[in-house]
Specification:
The protein is an all-alpha fold and 208 residues long. It is 63% helix and 0% strand. The protein is globular, with a radius of gyration of 17 Å.
């Protein structure tokens, strides 16, 4: 069963009525993210859900937002440091195969290129800002501790370095948030995480 069969994700509000377009995109993205890890399909699902929350009260193209949320990290398994570039031709191929509207494809491809802090680009549209914020929010909060443990850079590190890494990454993501709605969501996540990491560090030192 496809994840996006879930009625709570609002297929009835899609501008494009053919559900098969998004099911085809999802199927291809799932195939790319076969392995579990720091960036896997679970991350894609969380970014998708957060993106929907961030569209509330905003006049945006929902087709572009949803397709971009699905595709934003497809280049990650090929080149982690340049996934935002590598993901563009991969996304273009998937969108073409799914018969996604050509007039919206360029918008999605630009968002894929703009979504990462590693990119030299910055979100140039409301839809791009939403994907940017949703992606950063998934790097803030308790989920980032889990992602930090799975990160290739941290697999051989001790608990103190993992805590330090998690704090630094979460702070960078938190400071990069754009919309007030995302900042509000991020503040709650960030505050909870910092308290939890301080407690974890104390216990790791053998403190009562």
């Amino acid at each position: 069963m496809c994840f996006f069969d879930n009625s709570s994700l609002g297929w009835e509000h899609m501008l494009i009525k053919e559900k098969t377009i998004f099911k085809k995109i999802e199927k291809r993205v799932r195939e790319i993210f076969r392995e579990k890890g720091e960036h896997d399909f679970e991350h894609v699902k969380r970014v998708y859900r957060l993106s929907l929350l961030l569209t509330k009260g905003r006049n945006v193209d929902m087709d572009v937002v949803k397709a971009s949320a699905l595709l934003h990290d497809v280049g990650h398994s090929i080149n982690r440091m340049r996934h935002y570039k590598v993901g563009v031709p991969i996304s273009e191929s998937i969108l073409k195969e799914a018969r996604f509207p050509e007039e919206k494809t360029l918008k999605v491809l630009l968002i894929v290129e703009e979504h990462s802090l590693l990119s030299d680009k910055f979100p140039s549209s409301p839809e791009s800002q939403i994907i940017w914020d949703a992606d950063k929010l998934d790097g803030i909060g308790m989920i980032q501790l889990f992602r930090g443990i799975l990160s290739p850079e941290q697999k051989e590190e001790d608990i103190f370095n993992i805590i330090k890494f998690t704090k630094e990454v979460s702070k960078n993501f938190y400071n990069a948030l754009i919309s007030e709605q995302a900042k509000k969501m991020g503040k709650l996540r960030y505050s909870f995480l910092m308290k939890a990491l301080d407690r974890l560090e104390a216990e790791a030192r053998g403190e009562p």
